[in-house]
Give the backbone structure.
Amino acid sequence: MIKKEYDLDKKSIVDFHFNCLQGTYFSEIIDRKDYVILLSDLVEDSYYNYVAQTQGDINLILKETKDLFLQRNRKQAVYVTPCSNLYDNENALPKEFASWATDAYMILTDESYYRDFKIPEEIIIEDVQYSQKEEYVKAFHLSYAGDNPDDPYANLPEYYSKSLLRSFDVKDTNYKIYYVWAKYQNKIIGVASMYSDGTTAGIYGLGTIEKYRKLGIGASLMKFLYEKAVAENISVLTLQTEYKSYVEKWYTKMGFNTVFLGKYFVKE
Protein backbone atom coordinates (compact mmCIF):
# COMPACT_ATOMS: atom_id res chain seq x y z
CA MET A 1 0.00 0.00 0.00
CA ILE A 2 2.92 2.34 0.62
CA LYS A 3 3.82 4.83 -2.07
CA LYS A 4 7.40 5.98 -1.72
CA GLU A 5 8.13 9.67 -1.45
CA TYR A 6 9.96 9.86 -4.77
CA ASP A 7 6.88 8.43 -6.52
CA LEU A 8 4.48 10.81 -4.85
CA ASP A 9 2.36 12.99 -7.13
CA LYS A 10 2.03 16.03 -4.89
CA LYS A 11 -0.57 17.71 -7.07
CA SER A 12 -2.84 14.67 -6.88
CA ILE A 13 -2.63 14.76 -3.07
CA VAL A 14 -3.51 18.46 -2.94
CA ASP A 15 -6.32 18.02 -5.48
CA PHE A 16 -7.64 15.10 -3.45
CA HIS A 17 -7.86 17.36 -0.40
CA PHE A 18 -9.62 20.11 -2.34
CA ASN A 19 -12.14 17.80 -3.98
CA CYS A 20 -12.99 15.22 -1.33
CA LEU A 21 -14.02 17.89 1.18
CA GLN A 22 -16.42 19.64 -1.17
CA GLY A 23 -19.72 19.55 0.69
CA THR A 24 -18.02 19.12 4.06
CA TYR A 25 -15.81 22.11 4.84
CA PHE A 26 -15.46 23.50 1.32
CA SER A 27 -18.63 24.43 -0.54
CA GLU A 28 -17.28 26.04 -3.69
CA ILE A 29 -14.32 25.60 -6.02
CA ILE A 30 -13.75 28.04 -8.88
CA ASP A 31 -11.23 27.11 -11.57
CA ARG A 32 -9.42 29.96 -13.26
CA LYS A 33 -6.63 29.89 -15.83
CA ASP A 34 -3.75 30.48 -13.41
CA TYR A 35 -5.28 29.58 -10.04
CA VAL A 36 -8.24 28.12 -8.18
CA ILE A 37 -10.43 29.68 -5.50
CA LEU A 38 -11.79 27.55 -2.66
CA LEU A 39 -14.46 28.83 -0.34
CA SER A 40 -16.79 27.72 2.42
CA ASP A 41 -20.27 29.01 3.13
CA LEU A 42 -20.08 27.77 6.74
CA VAL A 43 -16.45 27.81 7.84
CA GLU A 44 -15.38 31.42 8.30
CA ASP A 45 -11.64 31.09 8.89
CA SER A 46 -8.87 30.85 6.32
CA TYR A 47 -8.37 27.08 6.58
CA TYR A 48 -11.12 26.71 3.97
CA ASN A 49 -11.22 30.07 2.19
CA TYR A 50 -8.33 30.96 -0.10
CA VAL A 51 -6.69 31.23 -3.51
CA ALA A 52 -4.45 28.27 -4.38
CA GLN A 53 -2.48 26.59 -7.20
CA THR A 54 -1.23 30.01 -8.33
CA GLN A 55 0.83 30.10 -11.52
CA GLY A 56 0.44 33.69 -12.72
CA ASP A 57 1.29 37.11 -11.30
CA ILE A 58 0.12 37.01 -7.67
CA ASN A 59 -0.64 40.73 -7.61
CA LEU A 60 -3.02 40.40 -10.55
CA ILE A 61 -4.61 37.31 -9.01
CA LEU A 62 -5.22 39.11 -5.72
CA LYS A 63 -6.71 42.10 -7.56
CA GLU A 64 -9.05 39.81 -9.53
CA THR A 65 -10.26 37.93 -6.43
CA LYS A 66 -10.49 40.74 -3.89
CA ASP A 67 -14.20 41.48 -4.42
CA LEU A 68 -15.13 37.82 -4.31
CA PHE A 69 -13.76 37.49 -0.78
CA LEU A 70 -15.38 40.75 0.29
CA GLN A 71 -18.77 39.61 -1.01
CA ARG A 72 -18.54 36.46 1.10
CA ASN A 73 -17.24 38.30 4.17
CA ARG A 74 -14.00 36.32 4.18
CA LYS A 75 -10.43 37.49 4.66
CA GLN A 76 -8.42 37.29 1.47
CA ALA A 77 -5.95 34.45 1.81
CA VAL A 78 -3.45 32.48 -0.27
CA TYR A 79 -2.64 28.81 0.22
CA VAL A 80 0.83 27.85 -0.98
CA THR A 81 1.74 24.23 -1.79
CA PRO A 82 4.33 22.72 -4.17
CA CYS A 83 1.66 23.19 -6.88
CA SER A 84 2.09 26.98 -6.62
CA ASN A 85 4.72 29.20 -8.18
CA LEU A 86 4.99 30.84 -4.74
CA TYR A 87 6.37 27.75 -3.03
CA ASP A 88 9.74 28.72 -1.53
CA ASN A 89 9.10 32.16 -3.05
CA GLU A 90 6.69 33.65 -0.51
CA ASN A 91 8.50 36.98 -0.73
CA ALA A 92 6.57 37.58 -3.95
CA LEU A 93 3.41 38.05 -1.86
CA PRO A 94 2.49 41.64 -0.91
CA LYS A 95 3.76 42.63 2.52
CA GLU A 96 0.25 42.86 3.98
CA PHE A 97 -0.11 39.07 3.63
CA ALA A 98 1.24 37.50 6.81
CA SER A 99 2.02 33.86 7.55
CA TRP A 100 -0.99 32.43 9.40
CA ALA A 101 -0.59 28.64 9.67
CA THR A 102 1.18 25.70 8.06
CA ASP A 103 -0.14 22.24 7.20
CA ALA A 104 2.07 19.18 7.26
CA TYR A 105 0.93 16.84 4.49
CA MET A 106 1.74 13.34 5.67
CA ILE A 107 1.55 9.93 4.03
CA LEU A 108 1.83 6.48 5.55
CA THR A 109 5.30 5.10 4.82
CA ASP A 110 5.73 2.55 7.63
CA GLU A 111 2.94 0.05 8.24
CA SER A 112 4.71 -1.90 10.99
CA TYR A 113 2.83 -0.13 13.81
CA TYR A 114 -0.48 -1.45 12.52
CA ARG A 115 0.79 -5.00 12.14
CA ASP A 116 1.89 -5.03 15.79
CA PHE A 117 -0.88 -2.98 17.43
CA LYS A 118 -4.02 -4.68 18.70
CA ILE A 119 -7.10 -2.73 19.69
CA PRO A 120 -7.64 -3.22 23.45
CA GLU A 121 -10.69 -5.31 24.30
CA GLU A 122 -12.24 -2.51 26.34
CA ILE A 123 -12.20 -0.16 23.32
CA ILE A 124 -14.95 -0.69 20.75
CA ILE A 125 -14.58 0.86 17.30
CA GLU A 126 -17.72 1.05 15.18
CA ASP A 127 -18.90 2.42 11.86
CA VAL A 128 -21.34 5.27 12.33
CA GLN A 129 -24.73 5.05 10.65
CA TYR A 130 -26.68 7.94 9.16
CA SER A 131 -29.20 7.83 12.00
CA GLN A 132 -26.31 8.35 14.45
CA LYS A 133 -24.93 11.47 12.76
CA GLU A 134 -25.93 13.92 15.49
CA GLU A 135 -24.31 11.78 18.20
CA TYR A 136 -21.19 11.58 16.05
CA VAL A 137 -20.98 15.34 15.54
CA LYS A 138 -21.53 15.96 19.24
CA ALA A 139 -18.61 13.64 20.05
CA PHE A 140 -16.50 15.42 17.42
CA HIS A 141 -17.24 18.78 19.03
CA LEU A 142 -16.28 17.47 22.48
CA SER A 143 -13.10 15.87 21.07
CA TYR A 144 -12.00 19.23 19.68
CA ALA A 145 -12.66 21.18 22.84
CA GLY A 146 -10.28 21.92 25.69
CA ASP A 147 -7.91 24.51 27.08
CA ASN A 148 -4.57 22.92 26.19
CA PRO A 149 -2.46 25.78 24.77
CA ASP A 150 -0.33 23.26 22.85
CA ASP A 151 -3.33 21.78 21.04
CA PRO A 152 -3.63 23.43 17.61
CA TYR A 153 -7.25 22.24 17.30
CA ALA A 154 -8.62 23.08 20.72
CA ASN A 155 -12.02 24.78 20.86
CA LEU A 156 -12.94 24.55 17.18
CA PRO A 157 -15.73 26.99 16.29
CA GLU A 158 -19.26 25.62 15.99
CA TYR A 159 -19.25 26.06 12.20
CA TYR A 160 -16.94 23.04 11.91
CA SER A 161 -19.56 20.85 13.56
CA LYS A 162 -22.25 22.21 11.25
CA SER A 163 -20.07 21.46 8.23
CA LEU A 164 -19.41 17.92 9.41
CA LEU A 165 -23.11 17.29 10.00
CA ARG A 166 -23.87 18.49 6.48
CA SER A 167 -21.40 16.01 4.99
CA PHE A 168 -23.71 13.11 5.88
CA ASP A 169 -26.12 14.37 3.21
CA VAL A 170 -23.59 14.80 0.39
CA LYS A 171 -24.86 12.68 -2.51
CA ASP A 172 -23.17 13.71 -5.76
CA THR A 173 -19.59 12.73 -5.02
CA ASN A 174 -16.95 10.33 -6.27
CA TYR A 175 -15.67 9.85 -2.74
CA LYS A 176 -16.73 7.29 -0.19
CA ILE A 177 -16.82 8.58 3.37
CA TYR A 178 -16.28 6.36 6.39
CA TYR A 179 -17.35 7.76 9.76
CA VAL A 180 -16.17 5.83 12.80
CA TRP A 181 -16.25 6.30 16.54
CA ALA A 182 -14.67 4.77 19.62
CA LYS A 183 -16.55 3.63 22.69
CA TYR A 184 -15.05 3.10 26.11
CA GLN A 185 -17.16 1.98 29.07
CA ASN A 186 -20.17 2.34 26.76
CA LYS A 187 -19.45 6.04 26.12
CA ILE A 188 -18.57 7.61 22.76
CA ILE A 189 -15.21 9.19 23.45
CA GLY A 190 -13.43 9.44 20.08
CA VAL A 191 -14.18 9.96 16.38
CA ALA A 192 -12.54 9.94 12.97
CA SER A 193 -13.46 9.90 9.29
CA MET A 194 -11.81 8.68 6.11
CA TYR A 195 -12.49 9.86 2.55
CA SER A 196 -11.56 7.54 -0.30
CA ASP A 197 -11.60 7.63 -4.10
CA GLY A 198 -10.48 4.01 -4.37
CA THR A 199 -6.81 4.88 -4.88
CA THR A 200 -6.10 7.60 -2.32
CA ALA A 201 -7.64 7.84 1.14
CA GLY A 202 -7.42 10.73 3.58
CA ILE A 203 -8.02 10.65 7.31
CA TYR A 204 -9.77 13.68 8.80
CA GLY A 205 -11.23 14.80 12.11
CA LEU A 206 -9.59 12.25 14.37
CA GLY A 207 -10.01 13.29 17.97
CA THR A 208 -10.50 11.99 21.50
CA ILE A 209 -12.38 13.68 24.31
CA GLU A 210 -9.67 15.18 26.52
CA LYS A 211 -10.26 13.17 29.73
CA TYR A 212 -9.96 9.88 27.77
CA ARG A 213 -6.68 10.61 26.01
CA LYS A 214 -3.62 8.37 26.45
CA LEU A 215 -5.80 5.24 26.60
CA GLY A 216 -5.02 4.16 23.04
CA ILE A 217 -8.23 5.58 21.57
CA GLY A 218 -6.52 7.42 18.71
CA ALA A 219 -4.31 4.45 17.87
CA SER A 220 -7.35 2.18 17.84
CA LEU A 221 -9.21 4.47 15.46
CA MET A 222 -6.16 4.59 13.20
CA LYS A 223 -5.84 0.80 13.19
CA PHE A 224 -9.52 0.43 12.25
CA LEU A 225 -9.22 2.91 9.36
CA TYR A 226 -5.91 1.45 8.22
CA GLU A 227 -7.56 -1.97 7.88
CA LYS A 228 -10.35 -0.40 5.81
CA ALA A 229 -7.74 1.20 3.53
CA VAL A 230 -5.93 -2.12 3.11
CA ALA A 231 -9.21 -3.89 2.30
CA GLU A 232 -9.88 -1.25 -0.36
CA ASN A 233 -6.37 -1.64 -1.88
CA ILE A 234 -5.56 2.01 -1.26
CA SER A 235 -2.22 3.14 -2.72
CA VAL A 236 -1.77 6.32 -0.67
CA LEU A 237 -3.05 6.96 2.85
CA THR A 238 -2.67 10.62 3.68
CA LEU A 239 -3.62 13.23 6.25
CA GLN A 240 -2.86 16.80 7.26
CA THR A 241 -2.02 18.29 10.59
CA GLU A 242 -0.40 21.37 12.06
CA TYR A 243 3.29 21.53 11.14
CA LYS A 244 5.71 21.14 14.09
CA SER A 245 2.87 20.38 16.51
CA TYR A 246 2.75 17.49 18.98
CA VAL A 247 0.02 16.05 16.72
CA GLU A 248 2.50 15.80 13.84
CA LYS A 249 4.89 13.95 16.16
CA TRP A 250 2.08 11.56 17.15
CA TYR A 251 1.28 10.75 13.53
CA THR A 252 4.97 10.16 12.90
CA LYS A 253 4.78 7.50 15.60
CA MET A 254 1.80 6.09 13.69
CA GLY A 255 4.05 5.54 10.64
CA PHE A 256 3.33 8.75 8.72
CA ASN A 257 5.97 10.95 7.16
CA THR A 258 5.69 14.65 6.32
CA VAL A 259 6.34 14.96 2.59
CA PHE A 260 5.48 18.60 1.90
CA LEU A 261 3.84 21.66 3.44
CA GLY A 262 0.80 23.80 2.78
CA LYS A 263 1.28 27.39 3.93
CA TYR A 264 -1.47 29.93 4.61
CA PHE A 265 -0.95 33.63 4.11
CA VAL A 266 -3.74 35.97 5.17
CA LYS A 267 -4.20 39.64 4.47
CA GLU A 268 -3.87 41.58 7.69
